[in-house]
Amino acid sequence: MGKDTVTVINNITGESVELPIYHGSHGPSVVDVRPMSKKLGLFTYDPGFVSTASCQSAITYIDGEKGILLYRGYPVEQLAEKSSYLEVCYLLLYGELPSAGAMDEFQQIIMGHSMIHEGLRHFYSGFRRDAHPMAIMVGVVGALSAFYHDSLDIDNPRHREISAHRLIAKMPTIAADSFKYSIGQPFMYPDNSLNYVENFLRMMFAVPSRDFEISPTIVRALELIMILHADHEQNASASTVRLASSSGANPFASISAGIGSLWGPAHGGANEAVIRMLETIDSVKEVPALIARAKDRDDKFRLMGFGHRIYKNFDPRAVILRKACHQVLNELESEHLPLFDIANELERIALEDEYFIERKLYPNVDFYSGIILKAMGVPLNMFTVIFTMARTVGWISQWMEMLEDPEYRIGRPRQLYVGKMQRDYVPMDRRI
Ligand code: SDX
After folding, report:
1. Residue-wise DSSP of 216-232
2. Average pLDDT for residues 116-142, to the nearest whole number?
3. pTM, rounded to two decimals
4. Which end of the chain is more exposed for a tag (fewer CB within 10 A), N or C?
5. Catalytic choice (366, 405, 424, 429)
6. Rounded to whole angstroms, how far apart are CA atoms 263 and 385?
7. Is 366 a catalytic residue?
8. Distance, CA of 305 to CA of 369 (rounded, Å)
9. Of ligand 1's atoms, which has the minimum distance to the CA of residue 48?
């Protein structure tokens, strides 16, 4: 860490304190505010953690101004073009690209864990058929700790690695089963002769009564979506996983908490929300009215798939997916389905509109991933489940990193109290 400092002076008391500045390898430096609360008795105040670094991390780097996204230093554009989702999993987990031998071994391990305990499959029957698959994911993933308690010692590195492998391996099976249950079709068992993404698509769309074939375009598009969604530093769901597991909670319960956070429409639920928003529009003529609602400060409506807390020029994932989106739509000959024409018109108008330009609101990853998934025939309520499947490796890599961080301790933010001062209890007969 560096030796630079900033001085904070409390103008009320005249007290001051030197706060160390730490410099990372990329991006903004940070000020360690811990001495301030000790010396000046002051907390920092930062609702939404817009300006707060919660940890140090070496996994993912984002430069929101330049539209840069690196996984362990590798540009996501290069990984999207040249890598596979499982190789990106290895990279995020272990920090380096694998050798051919290490990749084969990793693939064997992951595919070897792809089945779930039969008892867990009975768990699904407790849900209503019309349960949202994300609700099922939260429940079933949380319940994994009731089945795999042989490796829950979070202080044991080997247990951490086994739990990480289990989560990466089983998420596609749990996800596909969540979908199959919701439509009343039989679960498909994993086929370990297929690659990770093909295996998921087969479990999702195959039925026991006939052979299954899937377009390589769809496999590649889903692989791309999963690579681009694998991690994204300290987003809401990753921070949820870190905070939940900082108490020593087991990884399955902590990842289940992250799934709950990702489900929100402002976060991972945005891809589903994009299509639901587009489906409310009957023709391109209605697009200006939708944009007007998004700009109206008295209207809580926001344009789903637009804007980002960090990317203020473009989301590099959206740039990559935009190209893939047009390829998929073209290949599947759905380029001119009304919904996709409306999406194109919405994108065109928003990018020219002063409100969006001034606030640096661009289409984000969810705008295009929602459209691609819709074109691929993925059911709407499975969009965020796919995001969950892809992001599991990011969450669990950050979980492992946190537990190995010497500065790791239970997360416990403070507050600015604005409530009542101390007062005495009033008996019922004396209340107004
Ligand atoms: C993801 O954190 C991550 O990295 C997340 C993610 C990941 O990979 O993990 O990248 C995935 O969650 C992508 C974002 C998906 N969400 C959406 O598409 C939902 C729509 N977007 C908004 O909800 C919003 O843009 C957020 C939540 C993404 C960002 O919100 P911020 O950073 O808190 O922005 P803000 O609320 O401070 O907005 C600044 C201004 C406000 O207007 P003013 O008060 O200045 O007049 O921009 C406006 C907002 O009203 N604004 C929008 C808008 N997003 C922001 N206005 C209309 N439509 C929008 N989508």
Report:
1. HHHHHHHHHHHHHTS--
2. 94
3. 0.93
4. C
5. 366
6. 8
7. yes
8. 9
9. 33
Establish whether 267 is a catalytic residue: no
> How would you classify the pairing of strands 16-22 and 30-31?
antiparallel
Half-sphere exposure of 333 (CA within 13 A, CB side): 0
- Whole-angstrom distance, CA of residue 343 vs CA of residue 269: 18
Q: What is the rounded CA–CA span in Å between residue 431 and residue 38?
A: 41
Please say whether the beta carbons of 398 and 230 come within 8 A: no
Quote the ligand 1 centre to 432 CA distance (angstroms).
44
Nearest atom within ligand 1 for CA of residue 62: 4
- Nearest atom of ligand 1 to the alpha carbon of 367: 18
Q: Which of 299, 308, 383, 387 to mutate to test the pocket of ligand 1 (most atoms within 8 A of CB)?
A: 308
Element (H, E) at 7: strand 4-9
- 271-290 confidence digits (pLDDT tens): 999 999 999 999 999 999 99
Question: Do 230 and 395 touch, CB atoms closer than 8 A?
Answer: no
Contact 304 CB / ligand 1 (< 6 Å): yes
Residue 429: Cβ-neighbour burial (10 angstroms; 0-12, 13-18, 19+): exposed
